[in-house]
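User: Hand in any protein.

Assistant:
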Amino acid sequence: MSDNMPMSDSAGILDAIATTRSIRRYLDEPVPDDVLRDICFAASRAPSGSNRQNFRMIVLTDGPDAAAAKQLVAAAAHELWTTKRRTDGYESGSGIDDKSPKARMARSMDTYIENLPTVPALIFPCLIRHRAPTPTEGASVYPAMQNLLLAARARGYGGVVTMWHMAAEKQLTELLKIPEGVFVAATVTLGKPAGTHGPVRRQPLAHFIYDGTWGNSPHWATDPPGTRYTNAGPTKN
């Protein structure tokens, strides 16, 4: 078990959850069809509101449409990231210290966006709306994406859920012939990791759990031995 987690996990699910990282660097090799099948099957098992099963996944690997979609997402990501770099302080304060976590994060994002046109697989999870847009509609599609990432981890692959498509949604909708009334919920990039999965760092469990009333953490909200932490981010400085 990762981090010496002292708990029963006969199916390996808890370990997979604790070690599925957001993977943004990929080897230059395709994702085999059988891997895509297994990953998408796991995604299709996710719950949805009233069990409508009204989410779909557009999977793009190679060919002209895939190349065009990747270029559109890359251009949109560059536009959005340029703004975020400035507004979230990546170009000032600790962001200009090459050794700071913030600077490392910025370099990672720069590399990711630079390589978006050549990601092995691009997946657009979509939701077929049955009513006017609501704040809760993502609950019928995002659980499928977590299933997808866990399944990718199980097959030795990895990915990350992003929203970079939002600056090119109209062009993508036209390119991929997405009908009216269908919501593109996210952009998922997928491939064989150039790095590795491993223990995910978050804040301590007690930070997230309250016992009955707001602000009171229960005595049982303790982390497994060996758990390592990170602060929430990014900060503005």
